[in-house]
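Review session, final week

We close the course with one last complete record, chosen because it touches almost every idea we covered. It is CocE/NonD family hydrolase, a protein from Rhodococcoides yunnanense with 518 residues. Go through it on your own first, then we will talk.
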Amino acid sequence: MEIDIRITRVPLALTLAVVLVGQAAGTAGAMPREAPTDLFFTHGRAAEYTVTSERMKVPMRDGATLACDVNRPGDAGNVPIAEQFPTIVYDFNAYDGLDQLAVDSAYLVERGYNILLCNVRGSGDSPGVLDPFGPQEQQDNYDLVEWAAAQPWSTDKVGQSGVSYGGHTSMLSAANNPPHLAAVIPVDAFSDWYENTIYRGGIRSDTIRTWQASTAPATEGPYDEHPMYDEYWIDRSVKAKWQNIDVPMLQVGGWYDRYRDPMMQNYGAHPDLTWVVAGPWEHGMPAGQKADIGTGAYLAWWDKWLREDDSAPLPAQRINSYEISSEPVERGWQEFGQWPPAESTELTLTMGTDGGLSPVSTEQGTRAYTVPEDHTDAAAAAVIFSTTPLPADVVITGSPTAKVAATFTASDGNLAVIIDDVAPDGTVERITQGWLKASHRNGSVSPESVIPGQEYELDVRTWPTHFRLPAGHRLQVQVRSDDYPDITDDAPAGDVIVRTGVGGSSLTVPVLPSATVR
């Protein structure tokens, strides 16, 4: 079917000029703050020790062992110091990279920390079957923390940190609450393996399949065999155990990372225990990326919670966030007392029948597209809505949510909501996205029927962001059924009809500073 993607000329400048005036203040020509000014990030101590290392097999409660390196502070002759130091379980993952992790963590050993580096069961020299984040791996992690605390060279204060896989295990460690775990630093960590990675909005993701094939091939069958959110996934979930967490968490992640949503979910579950550092980073440690925070924050965190050093600072505010943008000049690091910021407000924009996106509702109507046969046709199979050029900068601080009033001619359907920044020259930069399978509209525990021809009001929440749209740019939202490889192109054939205009579909955007729409 023919797709109408005309862009409206509803005078958004007239409706938002008063709303947005002042948002551009301090941006044109401003120099970004590339380094946080908080003393938390500049904390430091001189190195006092050398690094000693011992390879050993650490016993688990079932008699199995994990292959580990124990790196301890040493004297000038590289002999371990006969004192007790706090221990950090460092990047507990399946990648068998203990030598590189030793290099990465040497800074902490030199300042008085034991570092415990271990391959998870079924990886490296740790025998067994690899089941990422499964019950056995979680039990092993618990045992590892408690084993470390009982060693004569360790105090009873144990921390855990890691990135990606190691960030996930750090969060699960906190959720399982071993008695001697005192604090964690999860970097790029999940809240729920099912919804963050495997089934996004109930739709299987292809992004993770390459990782499965190379790292955990035994998961390929089970992941496909459990499309619903059942006990298999609950057993691997942090969210299902949020109530157990009682240790401080320093959530570190990037606004370009695939786990920025769970970063803020984990914060929201325990805002009294959590501090967030969100930078302009892609997946991986901040080191070497733009606006890297260095080593001070990590040392300050461990000095505070493991050494119980009262002189070690915590962040002055709960949220340290780097404002990103499609423009080369950004405001850089900002501090907020909460997330979303207290001063933010919600701006609701109607998806117009004429393709506009505006606080002014247009006449009611519909727009439609045909589900593509495969992902190569996805860009053309969409309905697209756009504002006119913005009269001033708009800063998005949170998770935009689309309310899509949709009718499917098939017995189910996928929705991908993609939010873009469109520059005056037509360049499109994706800001964020979210997905939902229609039969999972009320959750993924059990599907609900989709009756062809019946309209459903579907809420699609996108990943959070801290993004500045410059004046003169346009905010665009795409509604479509495919977003490969983030989701698999498995939507059944048919048409999707989206109700538009007054009383129809809309996009609600959290913006900073506060706005009152007239």
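Two points worth writing down before the exam:
The chain has two domains: 20-33+343-511, 50-189+237-315.
The first strand starts at residue 50 and ends at 59.
Good luck, everyone.
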